[in-house]
Design goal:
- The structure is a single chain.
- By secondary structure, the chain is of the alpha/beta class.
- The protein has nine helices and eight strands.
- It has helices at residues 19-28, 44-53, 75-85, 105-122, 134-148, 163-171, 188-196, 227-238, 242-257, and strands at 3-8, 31-36, 57-61, 89-98, 126-131, 154-156, 175-178, 202-204.
- It has an eight-stranded parallel β-sheet with strand order 1-2-3-4-5-6-7-8.
- Helix 3 (75-85) packs parallel to helix 4, helix 6 (163-171) runs parallel beside helix 7 (188-196) and helix 8 (227-238) packs across helix 9 (242-257).
- The longest helix has 18 residues, at 105-122.
- It is globular.
- The protein starts with a strand and ends with a helix.
Length: 261
């Protein structure tokens, strides 16, 4: 059985002391590929360094909406240059809108659209961060879909929306990725959303080191090997076996990110 963790942050300091052990555990758990997300351009070199020594890791480049204030006249060029120069770049992001912790709407919107422009110009998928902003993200993506057609594609990562909101993004052709939150006891809307996602649009992720899934929720650090628990829970919610979920989500990740196993 093969699994792909489609959203990790392994360059964080919390992984520096025992990275080799963390990697051994994900390999033992059947994780055959990982997609490393990016929060801001200052991370580019550290992510590239990991990718250089971990063959089973691809990565994205971008600027997180909560760091939108860090955008300057050089940022777009930096993202574009690295995406064009490194064959391990498979997406742009994570990008999007987050009004849970910030209200700088205009700045976030500008940075979001600037990165959508880069992604569609390069014909790369996008990794979307959306928190308390589903309607606004939908409006942006609908407009870009009308402009760019099939060049606009991507994933709603660490999805936490309602079934109605989930359907909005499925109708746009986006993938929906579930993290450890889908295993939380009180996450009823997320679990309901998980049940309605069409098989060909389903992805799983850890978003490590955040949001460790049940039964590891008390752990101080999430890690890629725990994606197996997410797969098990998704399988139970959808009335399927973990083998079916692993096979489907692995195929979907390869399709979206152009991965070859």
């Amino acid at each position: 059985m093969q699994l792909i963790d489609t959203h990790v942050h392994l360059n964080f300091e919390v992984f520096q002391q025992d990275f080799a052990s963390v990697r051994s555990r994900w390999q033992e758990a059947g994780v055959v590929h990982l997609v490393h997300s990016c929060v801001e351009p200052s991370e580019f070199s550290s992510i590239q360094a990991i990718a250089a020594c971990v063959p089973e890791l691809s990565f994205a480049v971008g600027l997180h909406p909560l760091d939108a204030s860090k955008w300057n006249n050089q940022t777009g060029g930096e993202i574009l240059a690295l995406a064009k120069s490194d064959s391990k770049v498979v997406a742009i992001g994570e990008m999007g809108l987050d009004f849970y912790k910030a209200d700088n709407y205009e700045q976030q919107l500008f940075v979001f659209e600037a990165q959508l422009d880069i992604a569609t110009a390069l014909n790369l998928p996008v990794i979307i961060h959306c928190r308390d902003a589903a309607a606004q993200v939908l409006e942006v993506l609908q407009r870009w879909k009308n402009l760019k057609g099939e060049r606009l594609r991507g994933v709603m990562h660490c999805w936490g929306g309602t079934p109605e909101q989930t359907q909005w993004f499925l109708d746009l052709g986006f993938y929906i990725s579930f993290s450890g939150t889908v295993t939380f006891k009180n996450a009823k809307e997320i679990q309901s959303s998980c049940k309605i996602v069409s098989p060909e649009r389903l992805l799983i992720e850890t978003d490590c080191p955040f949001l460790a899934p049940h039964p590891k929720r008390g752990a101080k650090r999430n890690e890629p090997s725990y994606v197996r628990y997410i797969a098990e829970h998704v399988a139970a919610l959808r009335g399927q076996t973990i083998e079916v979920i692993a096979d489907q989500t692995t195929k979907n990740a390869c399709q979206l990110f152009g991965l070859t196993l």
